[in-house]
Write a structure and sequence with these properties.
Layout: H1 2-6, H2 13-16, E1 23-24, E2 29-30, H3 34-39, E3 47-48, H4 55-67, E4 78-84, H5 85-102, H6 105-119, E5 123-130, H7 131-140, H8 148-169, E6 173-177, H9 184-191, E7 197-208, H10 220-223
Antiparallel strand pairs: 1-2, 3-7, 4-5, 5-7, 6-7
C-alpha cells in the first residue's frame, strides 16, 4: 500500500491486509521509493485470471487511484467503467466482432490473437471523458474553450497512468489498448454508457503469465535538457 498512501488513498484495515509491498535487500527489508513503484508499470501482454485480490479491493484501488489525479481547474472530467467476469468477456468479444468487419481477412488472424490475449485477462478498465463537463467549462470560460479538450486528454492520461501503476504496484499485469473510436457505438449500446462519455483507452489487467521484455531506453541526451 506504500504507493497509494503516498498519493492519499485510505482503505479499510481489512482490505489493507490483502497487500503488503516490501522489497528484500541482502540483510533486511526496506520501503520502496516512489520511483521504484513507477518502474513496476510495464506493458504485460500475456495475462491470466489468477488474481488473488478481491473485486471489491480492485474496484476501490482503481477508484482511489483516479481520485488522486489532478485535473485542469478541478474539472474532474474522467469517467471509469470497470469490467469483470462476463462483462470483461463480452467487451472483448465486441472488440473482436468490430475488428472482424474492419480488418482485412488475410491479417485478421493476428488481430484476433491480440484480442484473445486481452480476453484471457481478469478485467478491463474503460477510461472515458465526459464531454458535457468539458462543454460546460468551455461556456463558463470561453477564453480557454480551445484548451479544455486538450486538458481533458491530459486528465485522462494521468488517470490511466495512475490506475496502471497502482495495479502494477499490487503485482497485477496490465496493458493499455486503443480500439476506440471504432468500438464506441457498439460498447455504449451494450453497456448503456452515457452519450456524453467519450472513450479514450482500455486497460486490460490480470495475472502476469509472462514478464515484459527488456526495453531499450533512448539516451538521456535525446530526451532531457538540463539548464541552469
Amino acid at each position: 500500500m506504500a504507493l497509494l498512501e503516498k498519493i492519499g488513498q485510505v482503505l479499510t484495515a481489512d482490505i489493507t491486509k490483502e497487500l503488503k509491498l516490501k522489497k528484500r535487500t541482502t540483510d533486511e527489508f526496506h520501503e520502496l521509493t516512489f520511483v521504484d513503484h513507477l518502474k513496476k508499470r510495464r506493458s504485460i501482454y500475456v495475462l491470466g485470471k489468477k488474481v488473488h485480490l478481491s473485486q471489491t479491493y480492485l474496484t476501490q484501488l482503481i477508484q482511489e487511484a483516479v481520485k488522486s489525479c489532478p485535473s485542469a481547474l478541478n474539472s474532474q472530467s474522467s469517467r471509469i467503467v470497470v469490467l469483470f467476469g462476463d462483462s470483461h468477456q463480452q467487451f472483448w468479444q465486441i472488440v473482436k466482432e468490430v475488428q472482424r468487419k474492419l480488418v482485412a481477412v488475410h491479417v485478421f488472424a493476428g488481430t484476433e490473437m491480440k484480442i484473445e490475449q486481452c480476453m484471457a485477462g481478469y478485467g478491463t478498465v474503460l477510461f472515458y471523458e465526459d464531454q458535457n463537463t468539458i462543454q460546460k467549462l468551455q461556456k463558463k470560460m470561453p477564453f480557454n474553450a480551445d484548451d479544455f479538450p486538450i486538458w481533458s486528454e491530459q486528465t485522462s492520461g494521468m488517470a490511466q497512468y495512475a490506475v496502471w501503476t497502482a495495479l502494477a504496484d499490487s503485482g497485477i499485469g496490465a496493458c493499455l489498448q486503443h480500439y476506440n473510436p471504432s468500438i464506441d457505438t457498439a460498447v455504449s449500446e451494450h453497456f448503456h454508457i452515457e452519450e456524453s462519455w467519450l472513450l479514450r483507452a482500455q486497460l486490460v489487467f490480470g495475472s502476469i503469465e509472462q514478464q515484459a521484455e527488456i526495453k531499450q531506453e533512448p539516451q538521456n541526451a535525446e530526451r532531457f535538457r538540463i539548464l541552469s
